[in-house]
Amino acid sequence: MRSSVRAARFQARKAVNGVRRTRARVQAVQHLRRSLNNAEGTVALQEEAQRHIAEGTLVMGNMSYYAPHVVKYKGDTGRVIIGNFASVAPDADFYVGGMHRTEWVSLYGLRAMLELPGAHADGFTHGRGDIVVGSDTWVTNGCTVMSGVTIGDGAVVGTKAVVTKDVRPYAIVVGNPAREIGRRFSDEQVEALLRIRWWDWPTDTVKQHVDLLSCPDIDAFIERFDPGPQPPDASART
C-alpha cells in the first residue's frame, strides 16, 4: 500500500515538473519570437550557417555572432532558435535530430537503409524538438547540445560540455553530461535582469548604455532599468 502511494506521489511530481518545463519552454520561445521579429541583423559568418538560415533550420537574433554546427539528417524537422546578442562557438555541435529508436526491436534504420517504402516517415531518425538558446548567452568551444534543450537567457555553457537537459537562465554548466556549477548573479538579480530584457532594446539604445552594460555594477544597472515585478496576466487566470 505504501509503495503504491509513493509511486503515485512520484508520478504526480513528475507530471507537475513536466508541466513546468513545458510552460517555461513555451515562454522562452514566445520571448524569442517577439524579439526575432524585430531583429536588425545577425553575424552568422559561416557559409554552412547561412545555408541553414536560408532553409529555416537556424534562426538567429539581432547581433548574435557565429553559429553552431547544426547536425541534421534526412527526415529531421527540428530547428535551432538563437536569441539576441548571443555568442556561439562555430565548433559547437547542435543535434536537431539524428536519434535512433531505442524502443524499437531494432535500432537500425531498416526502411531508410534498405530503401523501403516509408523511409524517413516512420520516425527514423527523430529528435525531441527545437533547440532554443536564449539571449546574451555564451556557448563555448566544443560543446554538444541535444535536440529539445532550452538554454536560458544569460547562461554559460562551458567548453566541451554535453547538454542533454534544459539550462536555467544565467546558469553556468560544465561537463558530460552538463551540470550546473553556479549562477552568474543572485536569484533576485536574475529575476530583475529577466524583467529588463536589455537584449530586446533597439541597437541604438544598447549603444547608448554600453558603459552600464559592460560594467560589474549589476545593482546600479538594475536600479536604473528594472520596471519591478509585473502583476499576473489576468488572461492567465481565466
What's this, in brief?
The protein has 238 residues and is of the alpha/beta class.
Short descriptors:
4-stranded parallel beta sheet; alpha/beta; UDP N-Acetylglucosamine Acyltransferase, domain 1; 7 helices; 13 strands; 238 residues; 5-stranded mixed beta sheet
State the helical fraction.
25-40%
> Can you identify the CATH class of the domain at 22-184?
Mainly Beta
Subunit organisation of the chains: single chain
**Between the first and last Cα atoms, what is the distance in angstroms?**
38 Å
Give the averaged pLDDT, no decimals: 84
Give the SSE order as H and E letters. Answer: HHEEEEEHEEEEEEEEHHHH
Number of strands: 13
Report the major sheet.
5 strands, mixed
Structural class: alpha/beta
> Rg to the nearest angstrom?
20 Å
Q: What's the CATH H-level superfamily name of the domain at 22-184?
A: Hexapeptide repeat proteins
General form = globular
Low-confidence stretches: 32-40
Widest beta sheet: strand line-up: 4-7-10-12-13
CATH third-level topology of the domain at 22-184: UDP N-Acetylglucosamine Acyltransferase, domain 1
CATH architectural group of the domain at 22-184: 3 Solenoid
Strand content: 15-25%
